[in-house]
């Protein structure tokens, strides 16, 4: 159960970050390699398939995406040093780094370096996903929805059995789910006109959030 109310900055931030991740993932799927970038379950499956088919080129590409996501998580741990959400930590720095990775990814795609573009976008997603993994007893993920849908399903089962349900946690999970879905729609629509430059949208979004957070933190001090 949530031990305290969810502050507006967490709800709004989670919505925006999930939307950005959904947009990034849509670009990955719509791109030439049809590669998931914001979650690694499919990537690990692809890696296993390509190893089984003895296709080293595609296996190396999948391994590169997986390793890049991992490195993004490592970078997040080095920057923030904590996994629980708390106002005052270095989220602004992490989000600015993420925005830089996405801008660099878009530049690589534009110049034909698609593998490097995938790797940089996956690294940005790993950094974001590890940036804040928990709040008040809830596990928070902003780049994939498997756990969210699982928890929502459990809650429906509990409600059907007239057991207690943590509605505040479910509201946060619904915000994340809707944000990710909206990001997928945005990514699909924008990709038709912008191609890989669609990544500039989540880059600007995360960069803007990072700057706003840094300014807020500065004035609070």
Strand tally, please?
2
Q: Residue share in helices?
A: over 70%
Beta strand % = under 5%
How many whole angstroms does the radius of gyration measure?
Answer: 18 Å
- CATH classification class: Mainly Alpha
Tally of distinct domains: 1
- CATH architecture grouping: Up-down Bundle
What's the tally of helices? 8
Largest sheet: 2 strands, antiparallel
Which ranges are low-confidence, i.e. pLDDT below 50, for 5 or more consecutive residues? none
Mean pLDDT: 88
* H-E string: HHHHHEEHHH
- CATH topology heading: Growth Hormone, Chain: A
Termini Cα gap: 31 Å
Structural class: mainly alpha
Give the CA-based shape.
globular
In words, what does this structure look like?
- This protein has about 220 residues and is mostly helical.
- It has a single domain (about 20-220), classed as Growth Hormone, Chain: A.
- It is about 75% helix and about 0% strand.
- The chain has 8 helices and 2 strands, in the order H-H-H-H-H-E-E-H-H-H.
- It has helices at about 10-30, 40-50, 55-80, 90-110, 115-130, 145-160, 165-195, 200-220, and strands at about 135, 140.
- It has a two-stranded antiparallel ribbon.
- The model has no long low-confidence stretch (mean pLDDT about 90).
Chart the SSEs and their pairings.
Blueprint: H1 8-30, H2 41-52, H3 56-80, H4 91-110, H5 114-131, E1 134-135, E2 138-139, H6 146-160, H7 167-194, H8 200-220
Antiparallel strand pairs: 1-2
Features:
two-stranded antiparallel sheet; Growth Hormone, Chain: A; 221 residues; mainly alpha; 73% helix; 2 strands
